[in-house]
Write a structure and sequence with these properties.
There is one protein chain. The chain is mainly alpha-helical. It has six helices and two strands, in the order H-E-H-H-E-H-H-H. A two-stranded antiparallel sheet has the order 1-2. Helix 1 runs parallel beside helix 3. The radius of gyration is 18 Å and the shape is elongated. The site of S-adenosyl-L-homocysteine (SAH) has 17 residues, from helix 3, strand 2, helix 4 and helix 5.
Length: about 190
Amino acid sequence: MSHWLGIALFFAALVASIAIRAPHERRSKSTKIAQSRKGSLENALLGLMGVAVLALPLIFATSNWLSFADYPLTSTSFTFGAIFVALWLWLFYRSHADLGTNWSVSLELREDHRLITNGVYARVRHPMYTSLFCHAAAQGLLLANWIAGPAMLVAFTQMFLARFTREERMMREKFGEDYAGYSARTKRLVPGIW
Ligand code: SAH
């Protein structure tokens, strides 16, 4: 099938995810930060994510610079890509709604930070990261190019590995027994598995 269908669905989903985040981004500017653990590695990885999620897909869609790495899009990968898009956007929406003003793009604690353990956070501790892995899978399945497709998976895996233990340590230091208990009854990314 035409690789344009994959590109169209991917960019439609990307625009939807930006729209889901926009009000939280705006509101987070007015919620004061009490503590930040955003280091230079974190900044570099956020930059890498920008390249992986926007720059490479745009280059793939608008030029032939990456065409040496193109391959044909199949209807099977398009179908699975569409399923991952649905999971990505649903979980992205739900996790932002449940975290509310406690959300930050980086490792930060807000003033009056509350520990959220309800909604999708009752099932896993990192549902937003699960949604970003679904985004990575969707990108890989929809963009039929060996560079633009896997880019988000490579970048976000680095980000996740650099972040999740530090994030959990920060939460344990702030919320003590409450976070320890919450961790004991939840998995990280996939309910019942890990
Ligand atoms: N790791 C979570 C949240 C990502 S946003 C997820 O994948 O869904 C990152 C910020 O969320 C962190 O800086 C931390 O301040 C905050 N956070 C993470 N888990 C939280 C929780 N259960 N309750 C409240 N804030 C949380």
